[in-house]
Design a protein that fits this description.
Layout (H helix, E strand, L loop, with lengths): L5 H17 L1 H21 L1 E6 L4 E6 L4 H7 L7 E8 L3 E16 L2 E8 L3 H8 L8 E2 L12 E5 L1 E12 L3 E10 L3 E4 L4 E12 L2 E14 L4 E8 L9 E2 L16 E2 L10 E10 L16 E3 L10 E6 L5 E9 L11 E4 L3 H7 L2 E7 L2
Parallel strand pairs: 1-4, 4-7, 9-13, 16-20, 17-19
Antiparallel strand pairs: 1-2, 3-4, 4-5, 6-7, 8-11, 10-13, 11-12, 14-15, 16-21, 17-20, 18-19, 18-21
Helix pairs in contact: 1-2
Length: 365
């Protein structure tokens, strides 16, 4: 028998009291019956409340069977996690959080994560994603997520890096009268080093830009020095001659350092080449470099011999000494199979007599 109302229970208790006065054994049996009935009433009154953060769902039963209670409730999302359970004598409170899928796109790839339903900021915190001032996302961080959303995350990082490289040493040529004209030696130099510090911009782990922050010279390079003697001892004067002391077509002043040996060849030169040459004379126009034409200035292909290149020129047959020359003009000879160089001369007759012949060019820069 199940007593469902207080009136029924009170009436039953009064009847039991009267019975106790008349019959003790019967009273004991009655008390046991009342206890069982009361326990049944208590158990039938246990409630389970499910709270999902927004809505409370309540069900009653004879016990605090949480899975059974959850099975009775029609939740909007069957994927959830239990946050907390609070038990009382007549009730149980269960707090749950719904679990949803969040898709995060970075660059060309997309990855899916299971997170607790809430704002995007809370999802990032749960996943351990920390944004800095350079990062960006396609949705506001306070966006409430319902599941299935795709968020594009652009992760931007600036990393400072550095590298150290050597500074090559050059070679300086020094002409010195302290040494004889046949003396040439090189004092070795020393390479230096510098450190370059730069910032690398990474977007989703890919380097996209580099910015140099500083360059620090750790050790300066020391150029090698090539010393070339220019002094002509008296007892060797018949073996060496200064270029200016030799009769030539050129009217340019040769430097004192340009010394010739007994064969009329510069004592020092960087390289030499044999070319085909013709001669030209006054046209009334300045040269390509703007200089006024003078014997000693020659026309070249500036792509092969830059303007300003210094040379010493003689004919291959030994009949002409053009002398000290500087590249200062250009001409039509650079087209087709014609001469490689034009030598400027004062008169038309000089040009005719020279004609076209091979020359030996010594580069004396």
């Amino acid at each position: 028998m199940l007593l469902k109302t207080k009136q029924q229970l009170n009436g039953f208790i009064k009847s039991a009291a009267n019975l106790i006065k008349r019959n003790i054994p019967a009273a004991i049996s009655l008390v046991l019956t009342i206890t069982a009935i009361m326990l049944t009433v208590v158990c039938s009154a246990h409630t389970v409340t499910i709270f999902d953060g927004a809505t409370s769902y309540t069900t009653s039963g004879i016990s605090s069977d949480i899975p059974a209670a959850l099975a009775k409730i029609s939740l909007p999302n069957k994927n959830y996690s239990i946050v907390s359970i609070t038990n009382h004598i007549f009730s149980t409170k269960v707090h749950i959080n719904y679990l949803i899928t969040l898709n995060i796109k970075k660059g060309e790839g997309t990855e899916s994560f299971t997170v607790t339903q809430g704002t995007l900021a809370e999802a990032f915190e749960e996943l351990g994603i920390v944004l800095d001032e350079h990062d960006s996302v396609s949705l506001p961080l306070n966006t409430y997520l319902y599941g299935g959303e795709t968020v594009e995350l652009t992760d931007v990082d600036f990393v400072t890096e550095s590298y150290t490289e050597t500074i090559p040493c050059g070679t300086e040529v020094v002409y010195s009268s302290d040494y004889d004209a046949n003396v040439k030696f090189t004092e070795p130099g020393k390479v230096g080093s510098k450190t370059t510090t730069y910032s690398v911009k990474y977007v989703n782990g890919v380097a996209v830009a580099y910015t140099i922050l500083s360059e620090t010279v750790n050790e300066f390079a020391i150029d090698a020095t090539t010393v070339v003697g220019t002094n002509i001892p008296t007892h060797l004067s018949n073996l060496f001659t200064k270029a200016d002391d030799v009769a030539s077509i050129s009217k340019l002043d040769a430097p004192d350092t340009l010394v010739l040996d007994a064969n009329g060849v510069p004592v020092t030169y960087s390289s030499k080449v044999t070319l085909r040459a013709t001669a030209y004379t006054h046209t009334g126009n300045p040269m390509a470099t703007g200089k006024y034409p003078t014997p000693g200035y020659v026309a070249v292909d500036p792509n092969e011999i830059p303007y300003g290149t210094k040379m010493y020129i003689v004919s291959a047959d030994g009949k002409y000494v053009y002398g000290y020359a500087i590249a200062a003009d250009t001409g039509g000879f650079i087209y087709g199979e014609r001469a490689d160089m034009d030598l400027f001369m004062d008169t038309h007759s000089q040009c005719v007599n020279f004609g076209r012949r091979d020359i030996v060019v010594y580069f004396v820069d």
